[in-house]
Write a structure and sequence with these properties.
Structural class: alpha/beta
CATH topology: TIM Barrel
Radius of gyration: 19 Å
Distance between the termini: 44 Å
Order of helices and strands: HHEEEHEEEHEHEHEHEHEHEHEHHH
Strand order of the largest sheet: 3-4-7-8-9-10-12-13
Oligomer: single chain
Number of helices: 13
Bound molecules: flavin mononucleotide
Shape: globular
Number of domains: 1
Length: about 375
């Protein structure tokens, strides 16, 4: 309560700062323990997905904590999952600044960060410091990507599976950020098929003590045909799960004109429906057989719930927190049980994919 109020008071000052400076300050405050503590959450929200026990379905999306520095704070705020990264094997500067832009009116952000970071070694130190003290129900995902100058498109993923596969609860293979040249090409079915084989081989070779589930994160800018091809491939390869979706290259007409001209990926409220629709299609093609983590434009409980009814077993958010503050986490976790009850469900699992005709028929029968 106090922090939500403080956020409302401090928000105008944060919005006066350049977005990347405001973000760095946020991370510093979180590290210093300056954040609210939310919980406990309703047990009807806990589920086992891809072999992992999630205490609730809400997580933070990749890109918020790229260096694995704020996990204790993020879990104290009640999240069930924290996805850190994208981490690349070698340090790199990313694109020139400024590279994050806000459109306050439309609760939207454009970023062209380009995976800046200190590389795998610095990331590993932070991750190690947290993993030995974390609780079993605090699920950590490491989101992995390739360095800009690496020519072999597969090598960096293999290296990072070797580095982090045994240290994390799950891995995400990020092939959908629009700010690394050529990255999205890896979503083409012929290339993706090879990447999947190499990734699963690497897990078998290097993850002897435990084999983490591996999720693949896709762009929302896929045609129906591309998405169907990917969904079928995911079934063939028995992929553990997918994250739908990354930022979009679209520029909907509602956006502020100057903002819309910035290059990069758009996130936040204007991405919401597009991301929900691709979740819906993927769920349809796979008949709900591959777990989906839904992400894109969640700024309310209803938004999160819509993605679940469309087929997402879990959801993540990032941009919504910039505009709504940490109180959004509490709002969603407190609000979901009421929405479930309203629809006559006694557990979150019953809501997953509930919009789909096959589920509706089952419910009626
Ligand atoms: C500033 C910024 C940086 C991001 N960096 C990453 C990243 O490094 N890796 C990744 O997979 N996604 C990254 N994303 C995408 C988010 O994880 C998420 O997929 C996208 O923003 C849609 O969710 P949202 O509308 O809730 O923000 C980034 C997003 C933003 C706004």
């Amino acid at each position: 309560m106090l922090f939500s109020l403080l956020f409302k008071i401090l928000r105008p000052a944060f919005f006066l700062l350049p977005p990347e400076t405001a973000h760095k300050l946020t991370l510093k405050l979180l590290k210093l323990g300056f954040h609210p503590h939310f919980g406990p959450h309703d047990s009807i929200l806990s589920q086992k997905i891809a072999g992992l026990n999630f205490r609730n379905p809400l997580g933070i999306a990749a890109g918020f904590d790229k260096t694995a520095a704020t996990m204790p704070a993020l879990f104290s705020m009640g999240l069930g999952m924290v996805e850190i990264g994208t981490v690349t094997p070698e340090p790199q500067a990313g694109n020139p600044k400024p590279r994050i832009f806000r459109d306050k009116k439309n609760k939207a952000v454009i970023n062209r960060m380009g995976f800046p970071g200190e590389g795998a070694r610095a990331f590993e130190k932070n991750l190690d410091a947290f993993m030995h003290k974390k609780k079993a129900t605090q699920i950590i995902g490491v989101n992995i990507g390739k360095n800009k100058t690496t020519e072999d498109p597969y090598q960096d993923y293999i290296t990072l599976i070797k580095d982090f596969g045994e240290k994390t609860d799950y891995l995400t293979v990020n092939i959908s950020s629009p700010n690394t040249p050529g990255l999205r090409e890896l979503q083409k079915v012929e290339i993706l098929s090879q990447l999947m084989d190499k990734v699963f081989d690497a897990r078998k070779t290097y993850c002897k003590t435990k084999q983490p589930p591996i999720f693949f994160k896709f762009a929302p800018d896929l045609s129906d045909e591309e998405l169907t091809g990917i969904a079928k491939l995911c079934m063939d390869k028995k992929v553990d799960g997918v994250i739908l979706a990354n930022t979009t290259l679209d520029r909907p007409s509602v956006l502020d004109e100057r903002f819309a001209k910035e290059a990069g990926g758009l996130s936040g409220a204007p991405l919401k429906d597009k991301s929900t629709e691709i979740i819906r299609k993927f769920y349809d093609v796979t008949d709900g057989q591959i777990p989906i983590i839904g992400v894109g434009g969640i700024t309310s409980t209803q938004d999160a719930y819509e993605k679940m009814r469309a087929g997402a077993s879990l959801v993540q958010l990032y941009t919504g927190l910039i505009f709504e503050g940490p109180g959004l986490i509490k709002e969603i976790l407190d609000g979901l049980p009421a929405l479930l009850e309203k629809d006559g469900f006694d557990h979150i699992a019953q809501a997953i994919g509930a919009d789909h005709p096959s589920k509706l028929i089952k419910k009626r029968a």
